[in-house]
TrEMBL record:
Protein origin, superkingdom: Bacteria
Pfam family, one: Acetate_kinase
Site (Transition state stabilizer) location in chain: 180, 241
Binding-site residues, Mg(2+): 7, 384
Gene3D superfamilies linked: 3.30.420.40
Name assigned to this protein: Acetate kinase
Keyword GTP-binding: no
């Protein structure tokens, strides 16, 4: 069966088409600037080249139509008819406490996603627009939603609840949900396969470190805690997000500056983190380059960034009564060798011993700890799309998910 995976944002659509007989990627690309001027689609061709096509894309429907057109194109495409697509899988960021597993799309599921828009207004609105576009354009094709926070649904209540009046949870669903769950799910399991360990008997700390970043404690195949919270703002220091902060610091600055809640949210999400500290960029490569040139704020930002990762690793080792494997993944985690070394420095008490030569690698599966390290530290490139494709195939063919 061929499975189309869509990741629809507020003004974008990323896509991959898989042949699930061998999980081969047949086509991939992305639509940008939906609803804006100068919208376009960028398609990755079979030879590795990329082709960009400008288009008028007022809504997600036109964006999905353009994806279909490119899939059918004799030069860029890989299918002769849309009938070859057996099912469509969607990434959905926020499933709240309504969805604990991937599921087939029904009117009730769409209503549930819509009801959660206020918890992820930018993301869920875009996801729902993509789902409805496929509803209209391919009404007979099954669709599956794979929720970012579903993998974290195994957290115990004492881990996901906040110490606020309980009615905040019962009335407004305020709790820790966590995100990047599809990535944490993939790399935690893949790391155990790679190391020939029993996933159901292994304590894994997964570090998804990119422009958005989160860490999860996965004990015997189940998440017991994760760093992001009600929203993706909590936890680690990120590219433009502040991560953990004293709530009173937020209200103090609102009083001082006169910012509205929306304006403060913009500051904490888009003008803080590495960008806010350095004033240079939210891209860690730019900050690393600046630090190498002696920029003191960049040096400080890198120290803060690594320190917070180290704190969460230590906390989650305590939460699981030990750790067997630490996994690095995502843009920074897969590519910035110095950040991995700095974050793991000082974890000798856990039995972590890094190997600088092994660590000198980017974007490939590898053990990066030394042979005598009690804890295995591994680099596992993430692949969220294949997780979505696998769940979509299973549900579309009537199988039960694990």
């Amino acid at each position: 069966m061929k499975i189309l995976v869509l990741n629809c944002g507020s003004s974008s659509i990323k896509y991959k088409l898989y042949d699930m007989t061998d999980e081969r990627v047949l086509a991939q690309g992305g639509v940008e600037r939906i609803g804006l001027d100068e919208a376009f689609i960028k398609v990755k061709l079979a030879n590795g080249d990329k082709k960009q096509i400008m288009a008028e894309l007022p809504t997600h429907k036109e964006g999905v139509q353009l994806v279909f057109k490119c899939l059918l194109d004799p030069e860029m495409g890989s299918i002769k008819s849309l009938d070859e697509i057996g099912a469509v899988g969607h990434r959905v960021v926020q499933g709240g406490d309504l969805f604990e597993k991937s599921c087939l799309v029904t009117p009730e599921v769409e209503q549930g996603i819509e009801s959660l828009i206020e918890l992820a207004p930018v993301h869920n609105k875009g996801h729902l627009a993509g789902i409805k576009a496929v509803d209209e354009l391919m009404p007979d094709v099954p669709q599956v939603t794979v929720f970012d926070n579903a993998f974290h649904s195994t957290m115990p209540d004492y881990a996901y609840l906040y110490a606020v009046p309980y009615e905040w949870y019962t009335k407004y669903h305020v709790r820790r949900y966590g995100f990047h769950g599809t990535s944490h799910r993939y790399v935690s399991k893949r790391a155990c396969e790679f190391l020939d360990l029993d996933y159901k008997k292994t304590k894994v700390i997964t570090c998804h470190i990119g422009n958005g970043a989160s860490i999860a404690a996965v004990k015997n195949g189940k998440v017991i805690d994760t760093s992001m919270g009600l929203t993706p703002l909590a936890g680690l220091m990120m590219g433009s997000r502040c991560g953990d902060i004293d709530p009173s610091a937020v209200t103090f600055m609102m009083e001082k500056s006169g910012m509205t809640p929306h304006e403060m949210s913009e500051y904490l999400n888009k003008k803080s983190g590495v960008l806010g500290m350095t004033g240079i960029s939210s891209d860690m490569r730019d900050v690393e380059n600046a630090a190498n040139e002696g920029n003191e704020k960049a040096v400080l930002a890198l120290k803060m960034y690594a320190y917070r990762i180290k704190k969460y690793i230590g906390a989650y080792a305590a939460a699981m009564d030990g750790v067997d494997v630490i996994v690095w993944t995502a843009g920074v985690g897969e590519n910035q060798t110095g950040m991995r070394l700095d974050s793991c420095a000082g974890l000798g008490y856990l039995g972590v011993k890094m190997d600088a030569e092994r660590n000198n690698v980017r974007g490939e599966e590898r053990v990066i700890s030394s042979d005598d390290s009690k804890v295995k530290v591994v680099l596992i490139p993430t692949d969220e799309e294949i997780v979505i494709a696998r769940d979509t195939l299973a549900l579309a063919t009537g199988k039960t998910l694990e």
